[in-house]
């Protein structure tokens, strides 16, 4: 039994960034086609990471590198907890801890661009964290458990009871996937800014680690979407995966059809969606008996 658990954990740690990297390659291809270009090959993100690993590291100081590796550790731990069907609330707390360490890295580099990026990262967290917690609360109300294994073993998918919560989560998913119009702290496109925000002072292996961390984050974000559609029926898991792909494709289209908004609008809009749409949905669900 222990050996099976260890094998599952190893597979999650190894396969999650691979799938995340493939999604990043798919993202680049779709973005290029939307812009009328051919685009890079599907495996281009892996080529980029390998190239970064081989590059020379330029150290600003010893401290800022530690925060990047600490962030990766907690993000990997989050992926293991979620994909093993563990406690969603614990996964959210660990995920937040990883994001905080990443923000600390921006402050530690002492670059004005990185510091501004770190401040934007914290603003993003203030914007999306309430919605993430409400999502966990809604799923708990439906399944009477914070464990993901229990949430996906229900007879009826959570999306039936929590459609507004799902819409609200998809809204803040743009923050987590670092896409326009809410890619405040780290722009992946040249048209957004001349420097890379919080990752400005990183190079070589550390920049590769940041990219791999983002691959993990993408799968973690889509795992929340998966929980809304998966049930005890094995066929539902196929539809859950398709729902994840549709949501990701939608986020790509939004990313390529919008420009970055000011942080004030990002914060207000996320809180309005959280406070109005999702809270109303939870109030309605409270009248159901599960």
TrEMBL record:
Cellular compartments annotated: Membrane
Keyword field contains Transmembrane: yes
Residues of the signal peptide: none
TM ranges: 6-26, 66-84, 90-109, 130-149, 155-175, 207-229, 235-254, 266-288
Bilayer topology term: Multi-pass membrane protein
One Pfam family cited in the UniProt record for this chain: NADHdh
Cellular compartments per GO CC: plasma membrane
Highest taxon of the lineage: Bacteria
Main location: membrane
InterPro entries according to UniProt: ComplexI_Subunit1, NADH_UbQ_OxRdtase_su1/FPO
Keywords carried by this UniProt record: Membrane, Transmembrane, Transmembrane helix
Protein name: NADH-quinone oxidoreductase subunit H
Record organism: Aminipila butyrica
Taxonomy of the source species: Bacteria, Bacillati, Bacillota, Clostridia, Peptostreptococcales
